[in-house]
Amino acid sequence: MNSFAINERQLIDAVIHGEPSAIRLLYDRYIGILTAVCMRYIINSEDVKDVLQDSFLKILSSMARFEYRGEGSLKAWMIRVVVNESISFLRQKERLELLVPDDALPDQMDEEEPEDGDVPPDVIMELIRRLPPGYRTVFNLYVFEHKSHKEIAQLLHIKENSSASQFFRAREILAKGILDYKQKNHG
Predict the structure, then answer these.
(1) Which CATH architecture is the domain 8-93 placed in?
(2) What is the pTM assigned to this prediction?
(3) Helices (H) then strands (E): counts for the chain
(4) pLDDT tens across 79-94, in order?
(5) Which CATH number, 1.10.10.10, 3.40.630.10, 2.40.30.10, 3.30.470.20, labels domain 102-186?
(6) b/e code 102-118 from CB counts within 10 Å (16+ = b)
(7) Rounded to 10 degrees, what is the CA torsion of 178, 179, 181, 184?
(8) What separation in angstroms does the CA of 43 have from each of 29, 90, 174, 175?
């Protein structure tokens, strides 16, 4: 199977028909982005592998029911599966805590958020990964998955204002981290 010439629709059909080379291509084509998505939610690399394995099993077993909606829809669906599996994992294994004691919050922040243009993306991602699990989850769902606070509240079984509060606190912690990084590295 020529991996460059095959489009999503053809790949889906080949996977549904159980072609081993198609399953391998599906994995090879999307594992990078799916790993990055999973790592935004889950810190431990062994846990990331477990969640990705569960996600791929779910993807493969559900592929025949997947509703193709054009190029890019397969990738979007697979990302949604990984996000949902990551949240399920956090609920089960880490007992997703959406409240953090007040002493874990940063001191008062200025109203202005720091510019992050001269902060490398990998530093920002590491700052996100260091957030407490509840803050990190809400932040990722809001920023990267483009979920509203109402959708996040439904997904996490919390109140809408709790989602907004978690997001606000996550932003405060990230802003402090960015300021600390800039002071440390740019004087």
Answers:
(1) Orthogonal Bundle (1.10)
(2) 0.80
(3) 8, 0
(4) 999 999 999 998 887 5
(5) 1.10.10.10
(6) eeeeeeeeeeeebebee
(7) 180
(8) 23, 10, 17, 20
